[in-house]
Amino acid sequence: MEEQWDVYLTDEVDQWLHDLEKADPLSYVLVNQAIWILACHGPAEGAPSGRSDQGIDAAQPQGASSRIGGAE
After folding, report:
1. What is the pLDDT of residues 55-65, one digit of tens each?
2. pLDDT value of position 44
3. Phi and psi angles of residue 31, each rounded to the nearest 5 degrees, phi first
4. Higher confidence at residue 19 or residue 3?
5. DSSP readout, 46-59?
6. ∠ CA(10), CA(2), CA(63), 5° rounding?
7. Is the Cβ–Cβ distance between 68 and 9 less than 8 Å?
8. Cβ(8)–Cβ(63) under 8 Å?
9. DSSP the chain
10. From residue 55, how far is each of 3, 24, 52 by CA, in Å?
11. Separation of alpha carbons 72 and 69, rounded Å
12. Which pLDDT does position 60 carry in this prediction?
């Protein structure tokens, strides 16, 4: 069995996911699946598919409030 990565979410991301669950349950499921894949495979899985010109900043998050993944 492969080692599972710990994925920590900032408070802002945690709140966004909570809001997304209410507003768009299907998108919430898809985002959670993507986070689960990250936890299972780590960064070796690569960047998500999509537009590369969205100007996303890759800075390290500051602080963490939630852990998504399997066993602790």
Report:
1. 545 444 444 44
2. 78
3. -65, -45
4. 19
5. -SPSS-S-S----P
6. 10
7. yes
8. no
9. -PPPPPEEE-HHHHHHHHHHHHH-HHHHHHHHHHHHHHHHHGGGG-SPSS-S-S----PPP----EEESS--
10. 31, 24, 8
11. 8
12. 43
**Calpha distance 37→41 (Å, rounded):** 6
**Which contacts (CB < 8 Å, 24+ apart) does range 54-63 have?**
61/8, 61/9, 61/10, 61/13, 62/10, 63/10, 63/11
User: The tokens 């709140």 sit on which residue?
Assistant: 15
Cα R_g (the chain), whole angstroms: 13
Q: pLDDT tens across 19-45, in order?
A: 999 999 999 999 999 999 889 988 777
